[in-house]
Amino acid sequence: MRLFECGSLVPGCEWHTRADNDAEIVRRVVEHMRVTHGETTIRENMIDNIKVRIIDESKAA
């Protein structure tokens, strides 16, 4: 299982998501960034920043 914690990108945000693959996590994070953080344009560097912060949940402890 893969894990993304928004606080690793947006300090103070406690939202997180888990999925079997990185593509699903990126999709969820992009939606979260739009709805919660008001991002209207998601640039390629934002996608890169999301991807490098996705970890194996087993290594999160």
UniProtKB/TrEMBL annotation:
InterPro entries per UniProt? DUF1059
| Organism from which the protein derives | Sinorhizobium psoraleae
For this protein's source organism, the top of the classification is: Bacteria, Pseudomonadati, Pseudomonadota, Alphaproteobacteria, Hyphomicrobiales
Q: What is this protein called?
A: DUF1059 domain-containing protein
